[in-house]
Amino acid sequence: MAHKAALIGGGVIGGGWAARFLLNGWDVAVFDPDPEAPRKVAEVLANARASLPQLSDGPMPGEGSLSFAARISDACTGADYVQESVGERLDLKHRVLAEIQSAAPGVPIGSSTSGFKPSQLQEGAADPSTILVTHPFNPVYLLPLIEVVPSPATAPEIVARVKDTLTTLGLFPLHVRKEIDAHIADRFLEAVWREALWLVKDGIATTEEIDEAIRMGFGLRWGQMGLFETYRIAGGEAGMRHFLEQFGPCLTWPWTKLMDVPEFNDELVELIAGQSDAQSGHHSIRDLERIRDQNLVGFLRALKDRDWGAGRVLNAWDTARREEAMPGAEPLEMVRLTVLPGWIDYNGHMTESRYLFASSETTDAFLRHIGAGLDYVAGGHSYYTAETHILHKGEAKVGDQITGRLQVLAADEKRLHVFVTLARGEDVVATLEQMLLHVDMGAGRTCPAAPEVLERLMPIATAHAALPRPDGAGRFVGQRKS
Amino acid sequence: MAHKAALIGGGVIGGGWAARFLLNGWDVAVFDPDPEAPRKVAEVLANARASLPQLSDGPMPGEGSLSFAARISDACTGADYVQESVGERLDLKHRVLAEIQSAAPGVPIGSSTSGFKPSQLQEGAADPSTILVTHPFNPVYLLPLIEVVPSPATAPEIVARVKDTLTTLGLFPLHVRKEIDAHIADRFLEAVWREALWLVKDGIATTEEIDEAIRMGFGLRWGQMGLFETYRIAGGEAGMRHFLEQFGPCLTWPWTKLMDVPEFNDELVELIAGQSDAQSGHHSIRDLERIRDQNLVGFLRALKDRDWGAGRVLNAWDTARREEAMPGAEPLEMVRLTVLPGWIDYNGHMTESRYLFASSETTDAFLRHIGAGLDYVAGGHSYYTAETHILHKGEAKVGDQITGRLQVLAADEKRLHVFVTLARGEDVVATLEQMLLHVDMGAGRTCPAAPEVLERLMPIATAHAALPRPDGAGRFVGQRKS
Questions:
Q1: pLDDT for the residue numbered A251
Q2: Nearest-CA distance from A62 to chain B in Å?
Q3: Which of A63, B26, B228, B412 could be a cystine partner for A207, CB 3.0 to 4.6 Å?
């Protein structure tokens, strides 16, 4: 039976939580008195559907069902987990938490608050033991970080259960051991924000110049290593102690103006908002969301290839779901890709090598699926492509969602004959037929695949043998249509 | 003739500059009294050779020559540009700058300083007009950001010339219009660093927890959009003004401890260094450098595919080099490509989609040759690939020189049937057979090619008709060898 999450508050953050749960197969009930909430959640969900599956190398579970409840108690009935994402007012949060607890006693309640400590949320609660902070980062459906902050009154078994739940959603629960204002990450964001306001106010830099100073330099470093690991490298062979001794004294230099808060007035708002309009106003917010999401997908996939940082979280998420998956008698939907601007040729269509790229992504995902992924290759065996036929049937354009499905035409111990269909919705844009040979990489010749690979491959080949031979299989270049 | 850069100071930063210049075809002379300097520069250069070419989609220029000079004046002789990267002591920098200026009058001098303002560097200089700050970020051979900070005494034409030079190296010169302590980016780094020291000192979080709080969340955001563009999205449809109004008041909250500097003593050093050892000590610094570089390559390639942020800088760098290095178009030997590290799959061979990429480069060059290049396409006509057969006959590895040759199998007014051979020396690594159709792009259907194109194509087709039919032409996937 599907799990159920109750989400109290359905804005950008609540919508992001909804997408995380739904796309991982949970049913979701949302309570939000805002009549616009269903539209807002639907918009976040559309963005999530277009991006989160691109991080998965196996089929995603069937999407859970989404409903909107008229009362908090209705949303919470039967819930395994409750996430509170209402406005940042403590009295409001106290009232909402009391209603949740009377409807769903004993059920863990995570709060998305960035400003309150868990002990503040627990004040006056009937049962403080189920309440903790689970602070996400936007976009919730892509960024893995969740700050999990219990107070001493939160039950340790609740904390453990919540961390487990978050992990199954592909999230990274960071256990914050001591509660503190703004938890951890937002303290850094606040520090940078204050400095940025000064730089703009004093006319040193515009919002665009500040953004470039971040994303062309240290921002790239921080997405894959944090502050300390980066500086560890900067210390060179002499290491962290050397780095500290070299830069420690600079601490007393008067570089920052951080505790001295700039006056927040209309003039400052206009200055910043005007610069931001000049910088980004030619993109709509929806465009910026999509650009951001595709960039994040690119970063996360790069990290996943390298099993590093957030990519390691994604690999663990794949592995956990692969163990649940079952082979069926239909072509396997292995990948979903979005056609990116860099994949387009001067005709405005997806450049031809990207069709083969998309097909390779499909085949690679299939090889991982049958246990012939990177670990297997590291052991000295692999499948090599011997031959490929590509039939172009349509054209993909920027932004198209392409699904890659794979059918096994034939397989034996050494050979794997596959047929990949790349489609945009129901429209097939290309088919690719390939012969793969299993090789002993050291000896440089073909050899039988490992028994554990064949155990996963052959049942799929048998199931697929019942499928009709796909249109285009066996064609040669220039053959007349029969 | 090759350009020459003189680099004064050959540590990690000087070595990074050396790599940038050398791999872009500049000759480099380094002055550094440290007897270890040649080894240190060689190590940085090895890392750069293993990563920077992966960002290029065309052949890199031939590497420039590297020499070490015994005196500053020797290094500077004939230099087009001088970069100063000595230790952060103003008296030392003044002495070095004076020596440079007497050896290379009028030549632009960029300083890598993070701590000094250009007006400080210019104090007492014979010619302040050539001196400015060009502050890089480690690793210099991958991160595009260079803060270019002139003082009012720096000549505007020197600033323009330096920005041009940096751009040709694939860098992003950020012109900092008003000099200020620590320029822009390091002010943010300093702010985050101070907060991080407090969190560790107060036992709130370890170095590892802080790094996870950064790289699992906002670090990923900042590598592709900066602070303001990210928050613009957070403001949703209501935009930046809404965001500011919502979060402005939080500015007065006591979240940060930033101006209150923690005492820098042995206890703090041991605490941080010990935690950093526990977090990262199982990787050597060399390993961490390679991991970081490959992650950065992944991020940068993701951005390049999307033509966004640092990726846009890389695309411009490619385009500029492509225009310089137009290959001599010998008949039918259309391209020579070097297999780049980024084209390699986990088997250590050229990844299969790159065979098609190499073939497309060959075909595109041929289409230009017969007058059906970009200008022709702009007129609304083009050749589209309808069908491709790929036969893999060997494997290409990093550094291999691949030649792409094209044979016309058949051609008429609308159809162009070609056979591309990709070879390393005499060894054929793959053959690609393709059917191209000439189309009217507006009408979306085939049509005869323009007379001037057919006038160039048909004589070639006639000549090629006398050639033997190449081995592999007409094959279908899985066909037995005859």
A1: 53
A2: 26
A3: B228
Residues 6 or more apart whose Cβ sits within 8 Å of residue A480:
none
Name the residue facing A386 among B182, B392, B474 (closest C-beta).
B392
Alpha carbons A449 and A367: distance in angstroms, whole number: 12
| C-alpha to C-alpha distance for B135 and B154, rounded to whole angstroms | 16
Q: Do the Cβ atoms of A106 and A130 come closer than 8 Å?
A: yes
SS3 labels along A276-334:
HHHHHCCCCHHHHHHHHHHHHHHHHHHHHHCCCCHHHHHHHHHHHHHCCCCCCCCCEEE
Q: Return d(Cα B404, Cα B362) in angstroms, integer.
A: 6
Asked if the Cβ–Cβ distance from A294 to B306 is below 8 Å, we say: yes
Q: Which residue of B has its CA nearest to A172?
A: B216
Pairing of strands B427-440, B415-424: antiparallel
Whole-angstrom distance, CA of residue B22 vs CA of residue B65 = 7
Calpha distance A19→A310 (Å, rounded): 19
pLDDT at A256: 47
User: Least CA distance to A233: which residue of chain B?
Assistant: B285
Whether residues A227 and B12 touch (CB distance < 8 A) is answered with no
Beta carbons within 8 Å of A147's beta carbon, 6+ residues apart: A133, A134, A135, A174, A176, A183, A184, A185, B213
| Complex ipTM value | 0.77
Instruction: Measure in Å the smallest separation between the Cα of B411 and chain A Cα atoms.
Output: 12
Q: Helices B37-49 and B285-305, interaxial angle, to 10°? A: 40
Q: What are the start-end ranges of the H helices in A127-218?
A: 156-168, 185-201, 207-213
Tell me the count of A-B CB pairs closer than 8 A: 504
Closest CA to A100 of A123, A124, A131: A131
Average pLDDT of B312-334? 63
CB contact under 8 A, B228 and A272: yes
Instruction: Compute CA distances A341 → A43, A349, B26, B303, whole Å.
Output: 23, 10, 32, 10
Which residues, in sequence order, are bridge partners of residue A404? Answer: A335, A422
What is the spatial distance between Cα A144 and Cα A138, in angstroms, rounded to a whole number? 10
Q: What is the pTM of this model?
A: 0.76
Q: Would the CB atoms of B478 and A417 count as touching at under 8 Å?
A: yes
Select from A216, A240, A374 the Cβ nearest to the Cβ of B174. Answer: A216
Q: How far lies B459's CA from each of B410, B434, B463, in Å? A: 11, 19, 6
* Helices of type H across B60-129: 72-76, 90-103, 118-122
> Considering CB atoms only, which of A181, A185, A233 is closest to B292?
A233
A interface mutation test: which of B183, B184, B392 has the most A CBs within 10 A? B184
Does the beta-carbon distance from A296 to B137 stay under 8 Å? no
- A288 to each of A283, A284, A291, B229, B406, how far by Cα in Å? 6, 6, 5, 8, 43
Establish how many alpha carbons lie within 13 A of residue A96's alpha carbon, considering only the half-sphere containing its beta carbon.
27
Nearest CA in chain A to B358: A353
Residue carrying structure tokens 């209705």: A74
CB contact under 8 A, A269 and B256: no
Which pLDDT score, from 0 to 100, does residue B289 have? 86
Q: Do B220 and A296 touch (CB under 8 A)?
A: yes
Decide the pairing of beta strands A81-84 and A4-8: parallel
Taking an 8 Å cut-off on Cβ atoms, the answer to whether A217 and B137 are in contact is: yes
Cα nearest neighbour of B188 on chain A: A192
pLDDT at B98: 98
Domains in chain A and their CATH numbers?
4-175 (3.40.50.720), 185-282 (1.10.1040.10), 326-465 (3.10.129.10)
Give A312→chain B minimum CA distance, Å: 11
**Which pLDDT does position A130 carry in this prediction?**
98
Residue ranges for chain A with pLDDT beneath 70: 1, 58-59, 237-239, 246-264, 322-329, 481-482
